[in-house]
Each structure stands twice: as structure tokens, then as C-alpha cells.
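Dear colleague,

Following up on Tuesday's group meeting, I ran the structure prediction for the two-component complex that the binding team flagged. I've pasted the input sequences exactly as they went in, so you can double-check that nothing got truncated or mislabelled along the way. The C-alpha cells for the whole assembly follow below. Feel free to forward this to whoever is handling the docking comparison.

Inputs:
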Amino acid sequence: MTAAGPSAVEDGVILELDSVSRSFGGVHAVDHVSFSVPRGEITGMIGPNGAGKSTLLNLISGVEVPSSGRIRYEGYDVTSESSHGHAARGIIRTFQKSSEFGQMTVLENLLAAAPNRRGASVWGALRSRRYWYADEQEALEKAGSLLEQFDMAFVGDEYAGRLSTGQRRLVEIMRALMASPRLLLLDEPCSGLSPAARHGIEGHLHRLRDEGVTMLIVEHELGAVDRLTDSVVVMAQGQVLAIGAMDELRENPDVVEAYFAG
Amino acid sequence: MSTALQFYVSTLLVYFGVNIIAGWALNLQYGLTGVMNFAFIVFQAAGAYAAAVVTLGSPHNSYQSYIGGWSLPWPLPLLVAAVVGGLLAWLVGLFALRPSRRDFQAIVLLSVSIIATVVVSSETSWFNGSAGLAAIPQPFASRVSGGLSAYGWFYAGLTALVCLATYLVVHRLTRAPWSRRLRAVRDNPLSAAAVGIDVDRERMTVFIVGGALAAVSGAVVVQFVGSWAPAGWDYGETFFFFTAIVVGGLGNNLGVCLGSAIVWTGLIEGVRFLPQLSQSNLADALPGIAVGVLIVGFLWLRPPGLIPERRRDLRSRLETRAGSKPGSALDHLSQGDLV
């Protein structure tokens, strides 16, 4: 983890934030935040409520546009790009509240995220089934493979809206993986889960990291942050308070005062 | 069957077909994509006017004022109507779909509907103002012998043909992967965008397709009834279409047929046969009251409608494929496929 300057993206850095700010009226939700995310690692983001974590995730994923500053991804300036534009580049996110496609089955949730398929446009859809079927089958098999790996094959044809909270979190993660992410942004993936479900998700995230997926995780549960992340960004009042490994941060008096003491 | 009854039944069939086409159009927009098109009736009206003015002869020899007057033969007026409906949808969509919130979109569209009626009623040079257009030629009328009832049956057949053609288009659209993207937009637009779906583009596309199909339904009806005026496409008509698809089943093409039969044919026609209970205008108001009660009742008690959206079972396709090979069909996928 390094403090980022305005220059080109360094080797080994997938995402670079340069003095990014976002204000709502007179409130500075994110205030001149600069840091970079190393490729292939899990970076955590922690901070008390209102610290600006979710807003920052919205900015990185294109849900909102920064008031000022620059966001570079793989060397490209993506500051003003739309959410689907970010996804097309490989920045895929999940949400704090479960955000599955509730009236679609689990398999359909996954297939909806498969990029660039024939039959996924109105013109492709108007052509005969032969035009898109092979492509669809390939995506279906990829979805089936994901279900197997996450031990979720048994709910493939269930409506996603009827699953438990833990299962819906897994659906969201699998759906994100269907979109072929290079940078996965996870907003509190373990919140509201039982210890067993949390442990299961942590296992999956470790496996994904080993497969080369870079992740930026916002998480409140410090135990999970400790077990999952390689380095952590601590935020308070819209600003970066400290960056480092969890062990170092516990020794940092500013961080202890702002976060751990609470 | 008397001639009058034959004509009545064939007219019901024509209207049934028209309402099914319109229902499928609205189902694409609202049932599948969640776009609350409260200006839906405007697109049907646009198709009706477009078909009328290209079917009518030159306005210079007419007692009515209108644009066009090209005397086009069937089915060209239907195609012109589809193009006009699609273009109008694109134009309206540019500003009406701009707010990301669906309720805001609905309010803008409702306003569009009200404004459209006022403008078309006031501007007499386009479509003869509030008096509307009349004496619109019926296709093949001179070639069908046997009087009113025979032509009624003939036109019901023609309507069935247009219905079939529309179904083929709608069926292709709703079974293809594209419909999954539309349903993703309906279920959760924010998540849909987060996995790479261009929500604005998909909404606009389905708005245009639905607008074109709604216009076709208008073209079919105007060429049968031979007249069209602003009083027939008041904004309230839109809610009859909404009721039909909610009752039948949102997102289900067959449900749309059933809902259209119940609401348009059963309810609105059915009240005509009720005995006159009083001298008040209650009988005229009954369809509106019944439709209001029906939509509230279904939204409370049975939101998916009578024939709910079909669940797409895909696991069997996966398992069939897996079973057809030695080992698992999933084996050949490496871990690298995940990222």
C-alpha cells in the first residue's frame, strides 16, 4: 500500500485514487482521499459510521461521480465513467444491502451478469435461437461451475429473493464473478451473517484472492478484516486516517482513538 | 346467429386482438422492465393517427383537416404506425426516462399523456382537432362481399394475423437472454448497472419497441372502426391496460391474453348487459369502478396475477448436458475461468 501521486499508475497497482472528494451540499462525505490498491491483494477499508466508506465505494464503482480528484484504473482515467462502464472494464461491486434480482432464479442472476453475449441485445434476441444458444450454454456452464464451487448448486432454480441472507450474499459474489472482475469491490460481505456463514464466505474470498482476483472490502467486523485483508485503509470523517496492516494500525494512537477505542 | 350479433362478436374479437397486442407491448415495458409508462395510450393513439392519415386520401378533397393523405394500401399503414410509434417513444424517452427513479418517470409520462391530449385536441390542422378523424377507409372493404358481418369476420382474421406476427416478435424477445437483462433492470437497476448492464439504454430500447407495438395496435383498431378522436384516448385508458396485465400476470405473455379477456372483454363489455338499475350515470361509471377495485384487489391479494411470470428452470439444461458426457460437463472449466 502506497500513498498515490498524480503520476501514471505504478506496476502492481490496479487502482489509484488521487485527492478524491465528494460533497453533498456543505457536507464533505469524502475529503481529498488518496491511496492505491495493489493488484492481487485484499485491501480492507474500515472506519466508524459516517466515515465515508460506502460513498468512496460508490465513487470507485461509478455509482456517483467525484466532486473533484481523479480515479485511475489500470492506467485509465475512470473518474466520470458510468457504473456499467466500470463493470465493462472489470470493476465489479456488491452492495451493503442484499441486491439480488429477487424475481429471478439464482442461475438467472448469474447469467444476467455474463458479459458480451449474443442474444443479449434486442437485435440478437430477434434472431433465431440458434444464433445465441451456444453462447448461452457456455455461460450456463460457467454459472453451473460457480454454483458447484460455492456449494450452491441445489438452489440453482430457486428464486434469489427467497434465499437466506447468507445465501443471497453468496449469489451476489457469484454474480460478480460471472462478470469476470479484475477488481472486486465488496461492501460489508459478512454483515448480518451467522458465524458459520461468515466463515464460509471468508473461505471463498481467500480462494478468490489465491486465484488472482484483487479485492477492496468495506467491513465492520474487525475479526473478518484481520483474517481477510493484506492491508487496511482507515477512514474517519471522510479522510484517510492511516494505511497499513492491522497489527500496525492497532498500535497507531490516532486509529485507536478514532476507531478501536469506540 | 343474427347479422347484428355476428358483427358484435366479430367486433369483440377484433378488440380482443388489439388489446392483446397492446398488452404485450405494455408487458415488455412494465412487466419485464419495470418502466411505468403512464403515457401508454399516447403511443396507441399515435399509431392510430399515423395509420389514419396515410390511409385517407388527399386532405384537399376532404371536409377534414389533416396531414398526410397518401392512400397507402394495407399493411403499409401498420408499418408506418410502428415507425411513428417507435420514433415518438424515442423522443419522449429522451426526457421522460432521464430521471433514474421510476416514480419520477411515471409522473413525467402521465404529464406527457395529459399534454398530448390537450395539444392534439387544440391543433386542428394535424388530425382535425377534438372532432377527430372519420371515414378512414377499411382495408379490402371493396373486395369482401357479404355485408357488415362478413367484413367483421374478415377483419377479425386479419387482426389474428397481426396478433400472430406480434406474438412471434414478442416471444423471441422474451425467451432470449435480452429479456433477462430487462428483468434484472426491473428487479434492481443499481445492481444491474454494477454488473455491466446499461440500464438507460435497455429502458430506452424497450420503450421504443413497446411504443412501436402499441402503435400497431392503434393502427389495427382505427382501420376497423374508421374513426379516431382525442375523447377515445384519455389518459385514464392507460390504467385499463395496466389492470389487464396485472390481473393476467406481469411478465407472462399468456397472462396478458387472459387479463385482456377479463378486463376488456369480460368486464367492460359485460356491464353493458347489466339491467338498468337507476336513471343515474352509474352504469357508465361501472367499468372504471370495477377496474379500480380489481387492480387494488390483485395488488393486495395476488400481485403475480392469475398466470404468474414463468420460472425459467435452467438446472435441468445443465444436468442434461452434464449427463450427456462422461464425467461432469463442468470439469473442463478451469479455475481461471472464474476471473
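The longest strand of chain A covers residues 13-24.

Cheers,
M.
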